[in-house]
Amino acid sequence: MAALTEESLIKIRRHLHQIPELALKEIQTSAYLEKVIAGFDQTHLQVKKIADLPTAIMVRIAGSAPKRTLGYRTDIDALPVTEATGLPFASKHPGVMHACGHDIHMTVALGVLSYFAAHQPTDNMIFFFQPAEESENGGKLAYELGVFKDQWRPDEFYGLHDNPDLPAGAIGCRMGTLFAGTTEVNIDLEGKGGHAAYPQDANDMVVAAAALIEQVQTIISRSIDPIEGGVITLGKMEAGTIRNVIAGHAHIEGTIRGLTQVMIQHIDQRLKDVGEGIARSFNAKVTVGLNQGGYLPVENNLALTKRFIAYMKHNPDVNFVETEPAMTGEDFGYLLSKIPGTMFWLGVEDDSQLHSATLNPKEASIEAGVQAITGFMTARMAE
């Protein structure tokens, strides 16, 4: 069977767009992907399912004279967003939408897979259709289940994310970090409640929380290299029950974002230090909970990314754009911390941003992405 045509790819994308599903619930999506993959030439293909991660799909293509195994990953889940595009192929699942463009991601991956199914690659290839990128750490879950072992372990891993700020079909990348890492922050302060008329008999955690929030602002401004950057956002605070009762407990939630894992670990430690200082100064108990899960920074491998960028820059059919790092998170960073590789952008040219209810990627980006990736993979195998 020949590789998928642009017309077929657009039909596939539109079908996927209509059946978005949340993390670890991608049942219809996974079944449809399996159906499409089953239509490819199976001569050199091997499809693998994972019992403990049932919506994930792995496909291996045996190379004709392999020197390495090249991996390609796409995410398959959607977001809890009510679509407002008005498209004739809009989501059929109320309150769920491919608002991050994972329908584009999957379609490009299928296009690349179909090409190499029809044209046996020189090197072995692994395609990983990953559930649960938006939440639940799907990449980390898969790795910890041991799915990337023996013949199923790539030597190099590649993946893309769509970018509405880039022209349709453009490829964007950079040396170093592409996406920031993220950490969830949960802080609890325990003091002593009491009557508003007798503050001397209580230990007010609203005051302690206010001091902590103010002190946290100095972590970025005075503990982090301003050229490297970092972000702490404390977006939620709960304390007290009524106006005339001193709050004995306060709870704060937020996020940390940093461009390298070293930076995130440094911010984590400074946040713990501030918490301990507040605890001592207010004679209170402070618990700082940090949960990074699988959302490590997407730190591109220097050697592989240099090669990737050189190919894209010198390919006259590719519109290459060198991009700045994004402070949003992507769980491919976890896999790239275990397996060297490169993540890059595919331009989809839209006025709406990712996670928006009106995101409407230009479909011309799909074929352009397939061509750029198959071209790069073919060139890499020739080395």
Short description:
This protein is of the alpha/beta class. It folds into two domains: 258 residues, Aminopeptidase (3-Layer(aba) Sandwich), CATH 3.40.630; 111 residues, Alpha-Beta Plaits.
Q: How would you describe the overall organization of this protein?
A:
The longest helix has 21 residues. The protein is α/β, with parallel strands linked by helices and 383 residues long. A hairpin with a 7-residue loop joins β1 and β2. It is elongated and about 80 Å long. The protein has an 8-stranded mixed sheet with strand order 1-2-4-3-5-16-6-15, sandwiched between helices. Helix content is 33%, strand content 24%. The model has no long low-confidence stretch (mean pLDDT 97). It has 9 helices and 16 strands. It folds into 2 domains: 258 residues, Zn peptidases (Aminopeptidase); 111 residues, Alpha-Beta Plaits (2-Layer Sandwich), CATH 3.30.70.360.
Strand order of the largest sheet: 1-2-4-3-5-16-6-15
Number of domains: 2
Instruction: Classify the fold: give the CATH topology of the largest domain.
Output: Aminopeptidase
At the fourth level of CATH, the homologous superfamily of the largest domain is: Zn peptidases
Shape: elongated
N-end to C-end Cα span:
27 Å
Structural class by SSE content: alpha/beta
